[in-house]
UniProtKB/TrEMBL annotation:
The keyword Transcription applies. It comes from the Bacteria. This is DNA-binding transcriptional regulator, AcrR family. Coiled coil: none annotated. It comes from Pseudovibrio denitrificans. The keyword Ribonucleoprotein does not apply. One of its GO terms (molecular function) is DNA binding. InterPro entries: Homeodomain-like_sf (IPR009057), Tet_transcr_reg_TetR-rel_C_sf (IPR036271). Keywords: DNA-binding, Transcription, Transcription regulation. PANTHER family: HTH-TYPE TRANSCRIPTIONAL REGULATOR YJDC (PTHR47506:SF1), TRANSCRIPTIONAL REGULATORY PROTEIN (PTHR47506).
Length: 204
């Protein structure tokens, strides 16, 4: 299915954030295929004609919703990388951000929105495709951070293997957070995973 991505530089005469938040709730409750632009219009107060002009149909709207939110999640997860030269703390922040984003709580504009998004039935594989893109971006940033500091470690230090490992830890944290695992247990898992990096032999 061909979808059109909304150009963020093109003026759009509606509130995207409001529309996308309401859309997630509708898609979560009724499924993508069973949700109409009329339903989104009722939920947001945005006229159906304006929704149709901007997104054409619900499939294209859903694709834009997923890309919008996962791009925001990517930026939030990776926000601490530039601030920390220490790879352990940089990765810790990324793992903690995953927990905060996807650990369900009572805030309707916080992590509950993330959980709803991830639980939507996605027959076209839009979420899976964008999640793979998120994994690739996180993996690349982790690898680069580890590669940049490998001179601190002995010759057995392998940035590629560690990047693979911490990317998979991130995936596990997201899945367990969406499954309702207590956030304290998730923080403990994140901290325990960092022992692998902390125990890497360094050059004295």
């Amino acid at each position: 299915m061909q979808t059109e991505t909304v150009d963020p530089d093109r003026p759009v005469p509606i509130s995207l954030t409001k529309t996308f938040e309401a859309s997630i709730h509708e898609f979560s409750n009724f499924g993508v295929e069973a949700t109409s632009l009329e339903q989104i219009s009722t939920a947001t107060g945005v006229p159906t004609e304006r929704l149709s002009k901007t997104f054409h149909d619900t499939a294209n709207l859903f694709s834009n919703v997923v890309k919008w939110y996962l791009t925001r999640y990517e930026h939030q997860i990776l926000s601490g990388f530039a601030m920390h030269s220490n790879p352990i703390e940089a990765i810790r922040i990324a793992l903690y951000e995953c927990i905060e984003l996807f650990c369900e709580d009572d805030c309707p504009h916080g992590s509950l929105l993330s959980v709803e998004l991830m639980e939507i039935t996605d027959t076209d594989g839009v979420i899976a495709k964008e999640m793979n893109h998120l994994k690739e971006q996180v993996h690349g940033r982790i690898f680069q951070k580890l590669e940049n500091c490998k001179r601190r470690f002995t010759t057995g230090f392998k940035p590629d293997e560690l990047a693979d490992f911490y990317t998979e830890v991130m995936v596990i944290l997201i899945k367990q957070a969406c499954d309702g695992v207590d956030r304290v247990d998730l923080y403990n898992l994140a901290d325990a995973s960092l022992e692998r990096l902390e125990n890497q032999p360094v050059i004295h």
